[in-house]
Amino acid sequence: MSEMSLGRHEFTPYKGRRKVTVVGGGNVGATCAQVLATRDYADVVLVDIVENLPQGKALDINQMGAVLGYEPRVTGSNGYEETAGSDVVVITAGVPRKPGMSRDDLVTTNEKIVKDVTEKVVAQSPDSILIVVSNPLDAMCHVAKNVSGFPKERVFGQAGILDTARFQTFIAWETGASVKDVTAVVLGGHGDQMVSVVSAASVGGVPLRKLVPEDRIQAMVERTAKGGGEVVNLLGTSAWYAPGAAAAQMVDSIVLDEKRVLPCTAYLEGEYGIEGLYIGVPVKLGASGIEQVVELELDDGEREALQKSADAVREVVGVLTT
């Protein structure tokens, strides 16, 4: 085969491969694209407005394929033409909260960004499923749903998997057990008022409260709620490895129709006593998106905490103009 023919086939996708678009080539988006590439079941398009940034990161991820043994099919772009026909679109675009920026300023700034991105990806991929990662997460899900006009089953957000992963990590460290044997779930808004469901937490099937004293459990719950801030204080910026991998796990469950039950930011219409609001709950994720909202049995304290979390989310959503 000549060099010319090799060049022509450099980014030719396999017939039948699925397509996943990640909008936002920053740390979270690039990590998500990297994890998805290693899964080796879909072509990945990485989009960012910064010239050469997504192209460079895509090239680097492609070349990593030669080391790890996956077939490189990642394309970087500053436009949306290459995203046409995507099965799933992960939206990570947005600005982080900066010193002196109010919460309302952050909401209105990222609302404009998510609105613009949603319009562009929907124009190219009208049958896609949207996963929102941009913050403030719960409010940005409302923006994506309203702008896209998609049903609630096809627009949802990544937050609970990340928060749950933090809780699971702390439980594993506290008990000296493998994190693989830790079962936990975190519900509610993606903020300080998230709800770690201690009553559902276990290690190898043994309830957490039988293994760890209550004061230590509450310390883990508190650390989980402030987990994002802890990383920011250490790094000076938001986390990206765990959030990127969490978004990729959602894509896996959708594209591979795994029907995983995962905590995601979903639009509720009466479930958990919450109406017309995006908030984190366990859902079954499959090829059509959210196939079921799973309602857990919560104790009185957890149910009350979830309602308070919902009230806090409504306050943020109230700032939106879309």
Essential attributes:
322 residues; alpha/beta; Rossmann fold; 6-stranded parallel β-sheet; 3-stranded antiparallel β-sheet; 10 helices; 20% strand; disordered N terminus
State the CATH topology of the largest domain.
L-2-Hydroxyisocaproate Dehydrogenase, Chain A, domain 2
CATH architecture of the largest domain: Alpha-Beta Complex
Report the count of strand segments. 14
* Biggest β-sheet strands, sense, barrel: 6 strands, parallel
N-to-C SSE string, H for helix and E for strand: HEHEHEEHEHEHEEEEEHHHEEEH
Structural class: alpha/beta
CATH H-level name of the largest domain... which superfamily?
Answer: Lactate dehydrogenase/glycoside hydrolase, family 4, C-terminal
Strand content: 15-25%
Number of helices: 10
Rounded to an integer in angstroms, the radius of gyration calculated over CA atoms is 20 Å
Spatial strand sequence of the major β-sheet = 3-2-1-4-5-6
What spatial form do the alpha-carbon principal axes imply? Answer: globular
The overall number of domains is: 2
Ends distance: 54 Å
The helix fraction, in percent, is 40-55%
At the first level of CATH, the class of the largest domain is Alpha Beta
Uncertain regions spanning at least 5 consecutive residues: 1-9
Mean pLDDT, rounded to whole units? 93
